[in-house]
Amino acid sequence: MLFSIVTRGSLPRFLVTCLACGALLGGPVVFPLPHRAAAKVRSGLSALESQLLAAPAPERARQTLRTLTAKPHLAGTPEDYATALYVRDELQRAGFDVELVEYEVYLPRPKSRRVEMTAPTKYRCTLTEPTLPDDPDSASPLAVPTFAAWSPSAKVEAPVVYVNYGLPRDYEVLEKLGVSVQGKIALVRYGECYRGVKAQVAQEKGAVGLLVYSDPKDDGYVQGKTYPDGPWRTDNCVQRGSYRAFTQPPGDPLTPGRPAKKGTSRLAPKDAGLPRIPIQPLSYRDALPILESLRGPAAPKDWIGGLPIEYRIGNGETRVRMALTMDYRLRTIWNVIGTLTGRDHPDEWILLGNHRDAWVYGAVDPSSGTTAMLEVARAFGELRKTGWQPRRTIKLCSWDAEEYGLIGSTEWVEEHLTELREKAVCYLNVDSAVSGDNFRASAVPSLWSFTKSVLQDVPDASGTRSLYDNWRAQDQKASEVRFGKLGSGSDYAPFLQLAGIACLDMASTGSYGVYHSTYDSFRWMEKFGDPTFSRHAAMARGWALLAFRLAESPRIELNLLDYAREIERLARELAQEHPQLDATALLDAARDLTIAAEAFETEPDTQATLAIRNRLRRQFEGFLLAPEGLPKRYDARHVVYAPGVFSGYGAEVFSGVRYALTRNDAADVARAMEQIVTALKKATRTLQGQPSGKKDTQPVRKGVL
Ligand SMILES: [Zn+2]
């Protein structure tokens, strides 16, 4: 059900006059937030910026989240389509031109699932998340049953082996104990890495099935009170999720490298590299009887979880039967793209994105992000009413089927690849916007200085400090906030890895144990994540001001010297970690890039050079891609940052080299080093070759500097 937008009073007359001529007001203005924030953030905001920051409204965010989480909205369902229409209508109402973009993609849903222990005792797993009286939403029959996306339909019965997190190092421990998973069902716990890694490694080791359970030590009662008394995972709570390997091509598995439009030619599913062994996630209630029955060697100390049992590896006596039937078919998904066209530079795009599909309700993941994005849209809508139009184009993107493996965003990037490489300035992602009060951001280094400066101007939820101070306060010992490195696990990945676009990802995090379960609900958010919805409003303020300044600043706010210095630091780190590696060429190339970037950043922008220098800033990220992809990878082209093969979500620096080193593949080490050096040299040459003082052919508006 839709609700009406809270409307605000019209702008004072003097402001409208100033806006009509397109100029920003420079002087300090009164900060119009209705709380104590005014004194605590830097002054010097323009009137438009003040208006933008005043727009996000907690109560309206609450209503938005309630609307988005009224029903489960798994990708490709009628309920998902309803959320797409809602987002479309809200963006239109805020003055955006909106496009609903459809793709036809291959998606599984569970038809029937049966997991039972057949020996030494019998136990049939419930595989259900029961209704909680405290949370009426947990009763919905529309919630997709607990399942592992991309598991095949299969029946197996085999002995069970406990393999800790299911990482390669865990299998090495097993080998030393003389235990193999060949022909057996691996039982592993969630955590430490992307779940797809667990499936890939289990399959490679010869397991015939995989059970993945949530141990209370990782996100249950060992961490704190469980839902509904606390924010952590209850005994019946199951983590759904995608088990597709990151090393496979991203997006729709049947149309790698091209958009999954109706009528497009498709691979046969058997050729799509999907997992071949049956996989089922379990709650710790269902895992307990199986774990408890395991005999054989005691599990190593660091394999012991939080259940009140002796953790053992198994001796073949415990047997489990898995019978899974999946319903695989082509299904329609819907991205929603809203555009505010730039007044001066319509072909320079500032992209903001968040996914909309959820495993069930996804109050945190991703609906808090969708809520924040709609508040950003409404804030820009307020500015639009004054006649304002951004200098550059701003696009708000609502992605579908992210949970199945970044599918909606990847298909869109594939469809617009050439245009994106030409026009995109940066992509600002917010997925699970709010699960608590701790702000954090990950970004490529060219966005670091700018982002820090913007966040100092944005009040956090308390209104007594900035988002920057909130972030800073989490690590008192550090001299500065530390940006996370971008790996994968959300929709920025195709923008960074396929299109070579500068990316940022933000979240406000906290104790959150209901991830990918039915209990990631509106009730959970109201009780634990953000009772006043002021964190949603704070996230919207930060996101909106970043986008506004990126769109309005004459100079594109990407600092190439910050990037070059960080690459040089990372290169030295790699050389120190691997003294056997001949890193001379890499260190030299990184040094040359820093020198070139220093010269570039020292030179001032002039009216004659601004357009061409902005183009360089925009395209810099793309220089860091290896067009052919990193060795033995389909998912990663970025020579500096890529998802780690064995971490999945976590970024690995110079991943091509590191992955080849773990395989002792000297040829691939050399190839990966060559890729990095080639990319850095190309970036250096382009920076050095940029003309200075030469008249640019592109028109530059008077007075932009
Ligand atoms: Zn998400």
Automatic annotation (TrEMBL):
Keywords: Aminopeptidase, Carboxypeptidase, Hydrolase, Protease. InterPro entries: PA_dom_sf (IPR046450), PA_domain (IPR003137), Peptidase_M28 (IPR007484), Peptidase_M28B (IPR039373), TFR-like_dimer_dom (IPR007365), TFR-like_dimer_dom_sf (IPR036757). Residues 156-222 form the PA domain. Residues 335-523 form the Peptidase M28 domain. It comes from the Bacteria. Residues 243-272, 684-705 are annotated as: Disordered. Residues 589-688 form the Transferrin receptor-like dimerisation domain. The keyword Protease applies. GO terms for molecular function: aminopeptidase activity; metallocarboxypeptidase activity. The keyword Transferase does not apply. Pfam families: PA, Peptidase_M28, TFR_dimer. Its EC number is 3.4.17.21. Belongs to the peptidase M28 family. M28B subfamily. PANTHER family: N-ACETYLATED-ALPHA-LINKED ACIDIC DIPEPTIDASE (PTHR10404), VACUOLAR PROTEIN SORTING-ASSOCIATED PROTEIN 70 (PTHR10404:SF46). This is Putative aminopeptidase. It comes from Chloracidobacterium thermophilum (strain B). The lineage of its organism: Bacteria, Pseudomonadati, Acidobacteriota, Terriglobia, Terriglobales.
